[in-house]
Specification:
This protein is an alpha+beta fold. Helix content is 42%, strand content 10%. Strand 5 and strand 6 form a beta hairpin. Helix 1 packs parallel to helix 2 and helix 5 crosses helix 6.
């Protein structure tokens, strides 16, 4: 399988799930400006929307949208039941509920904070995100979103919250979420994914990660991730 991705983008979520499940995956970088891939493909011919992630299966079929991809990956091997409970188990629906919440209420609004076109309403967007984070902070059922088990929703939340420093959102005001970031960042397979994407830890607590070029452009320094 091929996973089309940008370093530290939302494609990091299915990348983490592949690592957690031990799936053999080829990472293919996509240039945001040219939509050309690292192996010379026209990404728009693969995903006409132009954004990542996209998962190309061995038979050439392509699946897009992160929440759909991580569910497919978890369902593709028996071990995936640990990350996404089986159909008919209400815990599966709870995980799916969080996937929908994250994509609609956190992922998309946070992306708008990176776009200067929306700068006139950034404060309003940040206020909405803060409201959602406050709610989520009070909902954590244990170490992870639904309790003791790490799921596909936790990987997605980790990736979105990893953008907090770049969107002027201080997670330390929500201790449960800040602790969540530290726990996920310490997972061996998560660290493998971070290292594979050449991400660096740059904050004092070592729970936020970014590409070296991004850090350098922002006048920050970081340290490479080691599993």
């Amino acid at each position: 399988m091929k996973l089309y991705m940008h370093a530290a983008a939302c494609s990091l979520s299915p990348h983490i799930i592949c690592r957690e499940l031990g799936l053999d995956i080829e990472l293919v970088q996509v240039d945001r400006q040219t939509h050309r891939t690292s192996n010379g493909e026209d990404y728009l011919a693969i995903n006409g929307n132009g954004y990542v992630p996209a998962l190309m299966l061995d038979d050439g079929k392509v699946l897009t949208e992160g929440p759909a991809i991580v569910q497919f990956l978890a369902d593709s091997v028996p071990e995936g039941a640990a990350l996404l409970p089986e159909v008919g188990n209400i815990r599966r629906n709870e995980v799916q509920s969080y996937l929908n919440f994250i994509t609609a209420e956190l992922h998309k609004p946070m992306v708008l904070l990176f776009n200067p076109i929306y700068s006139s309403v950034h404060e309003e967007i940040r206020a909405l995100i803060s409201k959602r984070l406050a709610w989520l902070n009070g909902r954590l059922a244990g170490p992870y979103l639904t309790g003791d088990a790490f799921t596909v929703a936790d990987a997605y939340l980790f990736v979105c919250l990893n953008w907090s420093p770049w969107t002027n959102i201080d997670l330390k005001q929500w201790p449960a979420l800040h602790g969540f970031m530290a726990r996920v960042a310490a997972r061996p397979k998560v660290r493998e994914a971070l290292q594979a994407e050449d991400l660096e830890a740059f904050d004092a607590d070592g729970v936020y990660f970014a590409p070296h070029a991004y850090l350098a452009s922002s006048g920050r320094t970081g340290s490479p991730v080691r599993p």
